[in-house]
Sequence to fold (780 residues):
Amino acid sequence: MSHQSTPTPAALPPALPVGYPRIGPDRELKKAEEAYWAGRIDRAELDRRTRALRGATRRRLADLGLTAPAAAPESFSLYDQVLDAALAIGAIPDRFAAVLGADGTVDDDGLFALARGTAEQPPLEMTKWFDTNYHYLVPEIGPDTDLHLATTRVIDLFTESLEDGAGTRPVLVGPLTLLLLAKAQDGAPAGFDPLDRLDDAVAVYAELLSRLAAAGAPWVQLDEPALAADQRVDAAALAALLERSIGRLAAGSDRPRLLVTTPYGGIGDLLPSLLATGAEAVHLDLTRGEIPTAAQLAGVSGVQLVAGLVEGRSVWRTELPTAAARLELLRSRVAEAGGDPVAVVVSTSVSLQHVPHTLERETSLPAELAATLAFADEKITELIALADGSVSPGSADGPRSVPRTFAGVRSEAVRERAAAVTAADAVRADYARRAEAQQAALGLPALPTTTIGSFPQVGEVRAARAAHRRGELDAAGYERAMREEIARVIALQEELGLDVLVHGEPERNDMVQYFAENLAGFATTEHGWVQSYGSRCTRPSILFGDVHRPAPITVGWATYAQSLTPRPVKGMLTGPVTILAWSFVRDDQPLGETAAQVGLALRDEVADLEAAGIGIVQVDEPALRELLPLRAADHEAYLDWSVRSFRLATSGVREETQIHTHLCYSEFNVVVGAIDALDADVTSIESARSRGEILEAVDPDAFPRGIGPGVWDIHSPRVPSVEEIAEQLRRARGVVRAERLWVNPDCGLKTRGYAETEASLRHLVAAAHAVRAEEPVVSA
Fold:
């Protein structure tokens, strides 16, 4: 295809990030949205607060030096960037037709309906964004979905930026990635693939680009991270799809210039195809991908390369001399391929949405550690330093981050213990023997009911934790407050009729941070918030050194809860893979080595729980799928060390001690073999929001242990009916052998309110009783 000439405003500035945090340094977005959903503010106040947040963000980026037109990305999203793109092209499932106005557009309340569900309709499925802890909403598209421009939000935000004197760069998930991430709408004919609608989607994107050009946007960023991951189509097909999508958009004359980004990994030999599309700029992740060869850069003439040399997913400072040397190497290869080396732009590898706003407000981090860190604002400063030539190049093969050599980074005792581990340390007795011993010890009914771990954290609990942290509540007062809440939660579960109870985790601020605060080798932040999804934010800990457990962590709380009831109470731990995935982890040794250290620390905790009389221990691994490499060639090595670390944590117990694990929101059907290899006695999984898709991958003979497909989507405020839950159990019983089926929600209940929690759990227990009675079930 020959591409038509396009407008030629100024080139991209020499330094730019491809995305920026959108929640606000004080989680302004979260607070505004949750106030609106709770009815404490009206729509006008929500608009005022989010407008103020966007204005403050634009001013901050300008203060950091991003003042040139299109230097600052327009990263704001009210909930999720994938949902924004889906709504922009009208990809709205039939069951949500009511959210469309008479003119075919959708407003903010319609967006929230798709994201959070309604009383009548469950929300869109939610899963992990590539190999990150960010969750996106999965678009649903059918052959007859009316694709059209259903929202002008991206145009409105750009116009607003002009009013602020900023002139930001509009950012959209690209059409190819959007459709590769989408699923077929329920009822679509067999064989339909959302990619079948690519031409229709591209037509809407073209209209949107035209309207952005009319609004004065000189550049638009299209994110195509799908190019960095293996897909359901091969490389040759992807190259053809690139021409049908980016190539067609670039062929239009009535559009802004296009920057196409490829974050989260290298795209290898797809680069020539991308360079040939006619996009004016192409971004490469050069922290996970390698510097392209001159051959791969063929066709770079006339295209600006955007070099993602500053890692956007970690909080470690960039080793700037190494980055400068790699930039120099890239420029030499661009020149060799006939391009303009001076035009190369310095950028982040991915959007900075994955790191906190700024290090400036952190006052409690050890000074030696802080000196090796960079959050979003500090990474922008690094970009500008690389771009202005003030950094002298070192070796292109040098370290990628500033070395850490201070106290706590290395522990010889930890390393000696890890080196002494044998294969036998990660093996338990045969499951059939374990199952018999566990049934004799626990005496559970068929279809046993339980929850995943946490219960709603009421204001009094959070206030007590905060007062204790500030020194306003002494240790005795704090323990008394936590015990009162545990006793209340145990009594509630007994009244509801649950079979296996939990203590509710009132003492835990976060399922990873709580352990980080009690394990050596970690540091925690005061304001290091990162968006997980929607209004949900986490504060990842920083794993900087060798990990061990100085003292028991959960034993006291678990044994107190067990003393209150004759029913079994689960000990609750977070698994080694999830602790790594939801922390900022040291990059100076292989992840597998760090995972083994965490696994051994947790092994000590499991042993102490068992010795204290806790007969069920749950070790959660919701991030097992999350860290799976984007290329199949790298899967085996990852699954080997991730499974091994879990088994190190859980294989030191007796046969009668039942080990549970929990996994949520991550398309686990692609790693069902690894789930099996964990060798947990019971595995609970997200299933309700995806309407049981995981069960299609479960072979009852290949997965011979207990499994609990979630029957209540806790990330939505709706209360499922008894019949709705019962129907899910019937479907599960059609796939999973009844004697192995457990009944549980999709995830922990920390973010829910007590009214909906009690109602939903009553329905869950009633449904389990109803299905138990429908036909005899023999427990194993």
